[in-house]
Design goal:
Layout: H1 5-17, H2 21-28, E1 31-36, H3 40-52, E2 57-58, E3 65-71, E4 79-88, E5 91-95, H4 110-128, E6 141-144, H5 145-148, H6 152-155, E7 159-161, E8 164-167, H7 171-180, E9 185-192, H8 201-204, H9 217-225, E10 232-237, H10 241-248, E11 253-256, H11 261-268, E12 274-281, E13 285-292, H12 300-303, H13 312-321, H14 325-329, H15 336-345, H16 351-354, H17 359-368, H18 385-404, H19 406-410, E14 414-417, E15 428-429, H20 443-452
Parallel strand pairs: 1-2, 1-3, 3-4, 7-9, 8-9, 8-11, 9-10, 11-12
Antiparallel strand pairs: 4-5, 5-6, 12-13, 13-14, 14-15
Helix pairs in contact: 1-2, 3-4, 4-18, 7-18
Length: 469
């Protein structure tokens, strides 16, 4: 028995609301119908369906549904609830009251459509599942693209990638590529991940399907996404970022989507010249950060400083597998020595299948089989699809801000957003360097920068050169 995508959603909702899994199953057994006009309304409806179908059921063509989403059309279904979506060139608005319309002359950039659809998905779930929202209900719920900086002038900027690595190939990375396909993008992008696709990954990863399970994430993501990037070559690396930097000598830009604070700090210590990062906190928060060296602002280790409870997941995994926390923190994948320890506690496992398996993947499998050694181990939960997709889209937006120069003109290096609340202008701000940062707060770090990037003068944030393409 393995954890299915539906079970991942149920367990996420159960933990989110503090309810039992049976009740979570009942609450997720909802159907949504999307009634849309033509043109931009139809395109928006398609994106919204893609974001919702991995969490709740899209209703058939006939019959009643729990909630109907109306986009530039009249209601057409028997529904317990309805929401009405209005689109214009600068915003998307969701209301409980009619009408729904598309303003004349409205066209949306693909990333604007994705961002808008992800926010509408949160409104739909909040309407149909009681208690799920993480913010006071807002009606109308308005998403202004310029508030996020997602203007067409920025999104239409040509993007040329070289010496760039996408670190991580999970939900946020999938969301990033799915949004980045709408950019004018070319060059080469290396995708790095040591893990294999797990049973639950296709649920929140748009480029993965059931046939990809147990295959290397980096390889499957490159293969499945390549057709969306006719002028960008995707190159897979099955391994860690540290191994890649050791092989290459140095890496100019890292686009990071890994799933832990220690992993992000380790990436910073590999000294990439530029970092663009996005993360999610279960289903409630999204953080986007970027910087280019030299900078007096926050580095990735400043943003993800060590906190007392950050090893809670590792302790739960170690407890469930019958090993030490140090074994789990020694690397993302199980090695020969740790496999022996696990087999001594779980002799029923296949020895050949353990080495190279991710700790969290094995932990999930044992959770599903109720084979954990301790009942106190909290499971590793995944965010809903639209949350990962929104984080990925905001990361693609940050890439466009980088290439257009807007990121350096406005000086903001940090965005903190909730998928459950309309974005506002205070989402973006400047985060200064942490004086006690374990990376940039150490005097030897400047010497390391000078050794790896001797062409830099580490004095102030004036580095505007872009890599050749």
């Amino acid at each position: 028995m393995t954890i299915t995508p539906a079970q991942e959603n149920e367990r996420t909702l159960a933990r989110l609301l503090g309810i039992g899994e049976d009740e979570a199953t009942a609450r997720l057994a909802r159907t949504v119908s999307i009634t849309a006009g033509s043109g931009v309304a139809a395109l928006f409806a398609d994106e919204l369906a893609d974001q919702l179908e991995r969490t709740i059921t899209i209703a058939g063509d006939t019959g009643p549904c729990d909630i109907e989403v109306v986009i530039d059309a009249d209601p057409a279904r028997q529904a317990s609830k309805r929401v009405f979506v209005t689109l214009d060139p600068n915003s998307v608005s969701v209301s409980n009251a009619a009408p729904s319309r598309v303003a004349p002359g409205t066209t949306l950039h693909g990333i604007q459509t994705t961002i808008g659809a992800c926010y509408v998905a949160s409104v739909v779930l909040a309407r149909v599942i009681d208690g799920i929202e993480h913010a006071p209900p807002t009606d109308p719920f308005v998403v202004r693209y310029d508030t996020l900086g997602a203007t067409k002038s920025v999104l239409e900027t040509p993007v040329c990638l070289s010496d760039t690595a996408l670190v991580g190939a999970g939900g946020v990375a999938n969301g990033f590529l799915r949004a980045a396909r709408h950019l004018n993008i070319r060059g080469e992008l290396t995708i790095i991940d040591p893990k294999a696709v797990g049973e639950g990954n296709p649920n929140r990863c748009h480029y993965f399907s059931g046939g990809d399970v147990d295959h290397a994430k980096a390889e499957r993501l490159c293969a499945n996404a390549q057709n969306d990037f006719p002028r960008l070559k995707l190159v897979p690396i099955v391994g860690t970022f540290g191994q890649y930097v050791k092989d290459m000598g140095r890496v100019r830009r890292a686009i990071t989507t890994v799933d832990s604070r220690p992993a992000r700090r380790s990436i910073q210590k590999e000294l990439p010249l530029e970092i663009l990062d996005a993360s999610t906190t279960d289903v409630s928060e999204i953080v986007v950060h970027s910087h280019r060296q030299p900078t007096s602002g926050a580095c990735l280790a400043c943003i993800y400083k060590h906190v007392p409870d950050e090893l809670a997941r590792e302790r739960d995994i170690a407890s469930g597998l019958g090993i030490e926390v140090e074994d789990v923190t020694s690397g993302a994948l199980i090695n020969e020595a740790v496999a022996e320890k696990i087999l001594s506690k779980h002799p029923q496992l296949d020895r050949g299948g353990l080495v190279g398996t991710a700790f969290d993947s094995l932990f999930k499998q044992l959770c599903a089989k109720q084979a954990l050694l301790s009942p106190t181990g909290a499971q590793v939960f995944a965010p809903f699809t639209f949350v990962s997709s929104l984080a990925g889209a905001l990361l693609a937006l940050e890439l466009a801000r980088f290439e257009s120069g807007v990121r350096f003109e406005d000086g903001t290096n940090y965005l903190f957003a909730s998928p459950w609340a309309p974005p506002h202008t205070r989402l973006r701000r400047y985060r200064a360097r942490e004086v006690d940062c374990d990376f940039c707060g150490r005097p030897e770090t400047e010497l390391a920068w000078a050794a790896v990037w001797p062409e830099l003068k580490l004095m102030e944030d004036r580095c505007t050169a872009k890599p050749p393409c």
